[in-house]
Amino acid sequence: MSVPIQIPGYGQAIAGLDWLLLPGLDGKSTEIKQLGRGVDAAWQFVWSVKGHEDEYVAFVSKGEVKKRPVAASSLVRAAVAEDVYLALVDVGDGRLWIFAVKDGMPAKRMDRVGDAVDLMGMVKDFLTSLPEPSKAPIYTDKPELFERLPFAVDVRPFSLEILGHSIKSRDFSKAAFTWYSAAPIGGIAFGVALVILVCGYYAYQLQAEETAKREAAQIRQREIAQRKVELATTVSTAINATPPARITVPAYLETTGKIPRLLAGWKLAEVECAGQDCLLTYKAQAFATWAGYLKAKPAGWPMPTFDGDIEKVSQHIPVQFPSFTPRTADTLPRRDNVRMDLGNLAQVSKTLGLTITLPNAWERVAGNTAVASPDEQWVPMTGPFGATGSAVLLSDLAKRLPEIADVTTLGFKLDEKLNFDLKGKVYANP
């Protein structure tokens, strides 16, 4: 069954098609009509290659789509100029799409959408059917799935986003299905005659439709521009919710560096900072009392929190941040550049015992969080990152974090060694 997928920058296309070989015995038109009747077809797409005698056809039934569909496999063909290849890409919701070409034609039952377990069996069958499987290029954003194959493979980066950047508008138009009709020749002739009789009216209607389309496109562009204006304030607020990590980390360190580790028999055990606040957790030692803590705590601190645990005191203290220059959406770097900068920093930091985790999921900072929404492709994105290690290295690390990195929480564990655990987020343009 066909499955709709989103091609960034263009819109919806159909994957998971059944490609049927035209026998070439009764004429292409007759064979397409015969095959289409069996699947209640509404749309048809013919795959043909110059110099090849074989042709394939795929159908979409009446109940599957509401408007003219586009063959996703044909878009891959426009982007990949090889006679033999395999594509396996993530299409969201835990699903993958597999598509393979052999001798320039769709491989049998190799246009499917499903989970990795099911599809990898199809991958192995297809590759082993080739005379030299190691030479067949594999286009994928899931290279880890091919590491356990019993032979070397030629893995190349590919994704729906890359596909959107690799094709042009005319490729998307050429990939559109055409209307399927099972009408007999006599009916077609009658239809042609009818069209001839009303050609004047048809020409008028066509012109009216084109005018309506242009006006609708103009209205749509104005709506998109208005939506961008409405989102601008929300976007600015989102990307400047907190100062950069280069500012917040030194402020946290300055505040926490003045904290006494012992107060009237209470020992500082944990510190966690978020926003303009740090939460101190003191653990009771011998003869420690809440009354003693209240007398010993600095006068400028607010009242602590005493809960059901008599061995603990929770103490909030405020943190002051200096002013900073707000970020603007148009100056944010691209996602790929952010990943590269953080990755290089992580590689260097690893030698010092610091661990930095890179963003593995991105979402828009405002508007529709769905990445596929074409009207809001300009909206910046945010992704989480983290860092852990010795607290003595934290100050130097903060200086090297990019300007687009913020701190969500910063925690300290006061065990034998003073270690930190930083969780934050970075901002980038799509």
Core attributes:
alpha+beta; 430 residues
What does this structure look like?
With 430 residues, the protein is of the alpha+beta class. Helix content is 33%, strand content 29%. Strands 12, 13, 14, 15, 16, 17, 18, 19 and 20 form a nine-stranded antiparallel beta sheet that branches. The protein has a five-stranded mixed beta sheet with strand order 8-7-6-9-10, with helices on one face. A four-stranded antiparallel beta sheet has the order 3-5-4-11, with helices on one face. Helix 8 (245-256) runs antiparallel to helix 11. The two termini are 32 Å apart. Mean pLDDT is 90; it is low at 185-189.
Brief sketch in words of this structure:
By secondary structure, the protein is α+β, with helices and mostly antiparallel strands.
How are the elements arranged and paired?
Layout: E1 3-7, E2 11-15, E3 20-21, H1 28-37, E4 41-47, E5 56-61, H2 72-79, E6 85-92, E7 95-102, E8 105-114, H3 116-128, E9 137-140, E10 154-157, H4 160-166, H5 169-174, E11 178-179, H6 185-197, H7 199-239, H8 245-256, E12 262-263, E13 266-274, E14 277-284, H9 290-296, E15 312-318, H10 335-350, E16 355-357, E17 363-364, E18 381-390, H11 394-400, E19 405-414, E20 418-428
Parallel strand pairs: 6-9, 9-10
Antiparallel strand pairs: 1-2, 3-5, 4-5, 4-11, 6-7, 7-8, 12-13, 13-14, 13-19, 14-15, 16-18, 17-18, 18-20, 19-20
Helix pairs in contact: 8-11
